[in-house]
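Hello Y.,

Per our agreement to keep a running log of every chain we model this quarter, I'm adding this entry. I've kept the format consistent with earlier entries: sequence first, then predicted structure.
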Amino acid sequence: MQKFTGLIDKLIILISCSIVYFCQRDLVINVVPVLVGIIFSGFLSYFDDDRIRTVMTVGYSVLSVFFPEFIFFMPLIAYDMIFYKYQYFNLLAIIPMVYSVRHISVQTALIIMVLLIFCILVKYRVDTQFKLQAKYNDLRDTTREMSIKLEKQNKDLMEKQDYELNLATLNERNRIAREIHDNVGHLLSSAILQSGALITINKDEMVKTHLQTLNDTLIKAMNSIRNSIHELYDESIDLNAEIEKLVRQFTFCKLSYDYQIYSNPDRKLKYAFVSIIKEALSNIIKHSNADHASITLREHPALYQLVVQDNGTVNNYNIDDGIGLKNMIDRVRSFNGNINIITEKGFKIFISIPKGELEN
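Predicted structure for the entry above:
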């Protein structure tokens, strides 16, 4: 945008300088000064090195001393050097102008000075516009960057809030399960013992029959509450927290952990994942010379995926020799899942569990 605006400005200056030049009657008019001015101006626009531009400006000023016709296009040359590092070399234009007074009229010299001032004003306008555009672009980029950071922070905050809410829910379930177990469970146990004692000491068969019915009802209630407590407690297990506990306890080598599960898997699957990871880490400690291992647990639209791997060497691997590996395979197959064991570039266990089987 700046180059396009500068091109228009230079075209206007070139036309103005050409009009002044071709209106001179005391000079032999030819197109050489016009071509030289255009060539120098083009090179000044092409080169970004201020030193080269300065040398060219000084060179043009020297040429203007020997060829007074070149002084008419000095504003075009000066335009490219205004507001640059060595812009004060434009003052060299005064030398050929003073020297050329005898060849041009004072009126013409004043017109050239006016054109130089016009160049300064035009270049100032372009430079100011460019700086404002640059500030606007920086502000826009900064705003966009801040917006992206803010969105990320909001996302992280929402995820943290969801995690804390889920953790609070799980803790509340645990508390309710403990309360029921400690209070209602104990009371029902006492009632079962008391009714059993009454059945033993009572000799009236009719009363004994009713007491037995009451005892059976209490036992059913006790079993129902026990099952409910177990289910409530099992659902409150945080799979991520359980695996993180195993990761913290693992000190054999460096261990990376990546957890990307967003739903609440079935409790049996939670236990299976924890047991498989525990067994895999145990195998690393017993049989591996690895210095790095990793656990990756991800959720996909149709399946859960678990990958445990290390960078140790594998020698004489035989799946039939390991009870732990057989247990892993049995656990995975109980969910109709797939397990692949890869021994290239370390030991890798790749497990996928379809979600459809869990729902059924």
